Structure formats: structure tokens, C-alpha cells
Amino acid sequence: MYAGIAFGGNALTFGKQQIYWGPTTMGPLSFSSNAEPTYNARLVSTRPHPLPLVPSWGTYRFDIVLGKLSGHSYPARPWFNGQKVSFNFGNALELSFTRWSVFWGVGHPITFHSFKDNLFSFNSTGSYVGNGAAPYGDRLDPGDRKSNFDFRYRLPFFKHAVTLYADSYSDDDPSPISAPRRAAWNPGIYFARLPGLPHMDLRVEAVSSQGLVYDFGGTHFFMNNQYLDSNTNKGFLLGNAVGRDGRAIEARSGYWFSSRTRVEGGYRQDKIANGFLPNGGTITDGFVNGSFAINRHWSAQVFTQYERFLIPSYMQNSQHNTSGWFQITWNPELALRK
Asked: Does a structural domain hold residue 127?
């Protein structure tokens, strides 16, 4: 639950809120629905604003957040801050840039000076000397800083029915596009209509946290030598569930009976590298999701999933499970009138 106030096309809110920063459905690499929502203060634009000086070029939106993470031990009770800005150039192209960080926590003073260092310093750690990193618990450490870049582009040759998009993530780099070979990437393509099947769509995505050129191993992304629990909230990754040193692919297709009634099926497979876990691992999911409009005010949704996973370092044999849920939604459309 959260509360706030809206003004001038913006909103200032406080409370427990979900952050979803990216264009992918399998989960953005920084903030997604994979972990429990965080407690935060948030300033966000609720509508696009014209670009300063050149309003005819397009619009921009921003999202600024300061929040607290739970379930961390090393150090306990850290905070996070993040800033995201998106630029839209017409209806075809959107570019977004994100900077965020895990900071403060037990052993790290909560001061304006430490907040300034987190935002503007260029040091990796506060006590950085020569080629060695500071020991764990360094009070002067400015925080575990990360960056993201994502985009959407509607291809003009297909009447904007095909969209290319990608999400990318870097640790300790100003932006993934400044060092793309050191970044994690999550590209995707979406077909709003299939040839000969105008009511059916298709989405395919892939993600890798191993690296574009070679496998960086399990200590390159989503962790830090000062903030060991790093990109997690209550033990779950804040971003994409691919995890460290992994690769995943997902495909899903849906049939639209109407704007509110749709049936979708999908498949996802995750691979964990042998260099991170002995003998690696494989997780495979198949799912069906249906949304049905009962009438103007009522709708229903049903979801079921079958999963098989084999992680030899955890369990010798493959494991299987099936899960599902059912939801009823009521939209009363109530209004208060003078």
C-alpha cells in the first residue's frame, strides 16, 4: 500500500511500491516483479513532458526513487536510490537511461556527505589504494553502483506491427553502451500480428549474464565486495530471474478474442554455467495464461505452469512441480459527485 499526491503531470508517493524498469516481459535486469516490492519514496512523471528547448523532437519521462531493502546481512538494512529517464522520439523510438545504487546500511553512515559521494564520486571504494580493493566493511565506500540502458524501436516497414527492444545492465560502468562487452543483455522482438493470423501475437526474448565475449563467471554481475547481498530483496533478485552466470530464452504467443479476452501459452528455459555451479543446471517451464471478460465490471484470469529443474549440486535427480492460480477482478467504476 502506498499514498501520494499528483501535481503538474507528476506524482510523489510513499509506501510499498513495485518498480518495473525495462521493456522485457521476462523481467528487466535491474527492477522487476521477481522480488517483493520495496518500501520507498518515489517521484515519477505520470505523463510525457515535452523536451526542453526542442519540444518538437519528442517527450521525456522520469522516475526517481529512494528506498530500503530487506533481508540483507552483509551489511544489514541497506538503502537504494535510482534515477531513470526515458526519451520518446515520435511513436517509433524510445531510449531510456538508468543509474541506481545500493548504499548505506549498518557500518556505513547515513549522511548528506555519503549520499553526495554515492551520486558523484568516481572511486570504486572509499579506501581504494593501488590495485587492491578495500576490505569488507569500509565505512567510506560510496555504494554498489549500477547502470542500465534500454530501448524500443517499432520497425517502419511492417506498419509498426514489429517491435525490437533490449534491456542491458552494467556493474561499475557509467552505461552499458560505454562498455557493451562488459554488460549483460536482454534483447527481444514482439510481433503484434502474425501473417495470416491477425488476432495472434508472438514475443521472443533471450538474456545472458555470462557476457558477450567470454564467460565472466558468477562474481561479475549482481554482487559486490562491500554489499554482498547486493541486488536482492528478502533473498530474491530484484531483476531478471536468470541470476548469475546464466542464460535464458523465453517465447510466448497469445490469441486475442477481444481487447479483454485472451489466451496465451509460453515456454522458458534457464541454463546455469558449469563454471559457477558444478555440472551447471537447467530449469524449464511451460505455462498457459487466460484472461476472460465476464461483463463490463467483472473479469477472470487463470494461470497454470509446469516446471522441471535439474541442479546436480543441489539435488541429484530432476525435480518436477505444477502450480497455478485463479483471480476474479471487479471494477465498480464508482465516482463521487458534488
From this structure: yes
The span from the CA of 290 to the CA of 311, in Å, is 31
For 114, residues 6+ apart whose C-beta sits below 8 A from its C-beta are: 103, 104, 108, 142
Range of the domain at 55: 2-256
296 found inside a domain: no
Using an 8 Å Cβ cutoff, are 272 and 284 in contact?
no
Handedness of CA 250, 255, 260, 264 (dihedral sign): negative
Q: Is residue 283 part of a domain?
A: no
Task: Please provide the DSSP assignment of 226-283 as one string.
Answer: SSSS-SEETTEESS-TT-TTEEEEEEEEEEESSSS-EEEEEEEEEEE-TTTSTT-EEE
Q: What is the maximum span of the chain, computed from C-alpha positions, in angstroms?
A: 70
Residue pair 261/299 in contact (Cβ under 8 Å)? The answer is no
Q: What is the pLDDT of residues 64-97, one digit of tens each?
A: 999 999 999 999 999 999 999 999 999 899 999 9
Alpha carbons 303 and 323: distance in angstroms, whole number:
8
Residue 309, in any domain of the structure: no
- 20-66 confidence digits (pLDDT tens): 999 999 999 999 999 999 999 999 999 999 999 999 999 999 999 99
CA 54 to chain centroid, in Å, comes to: 30
pTM: predicted TM-score of the whole model, two decimal places: 0.90
Residue 172 has pLDDT above 90, yes or no: no
Mean pLDDT of the chain: 92
Q: 63 and 42 in contact (C-beta within 8 Å)?
A: yes
The amino acid occupying position 264 is E
The amino acid occupying position 334 is: L
Residue 120, domain CATH: 2.40.160.130
How many separate domains does the chain show? Answer: 1
Alpha-carbon torsion 302, 291, 166, 48, what sign? negative
The whole-number pLDDT of residue 129 equals 46
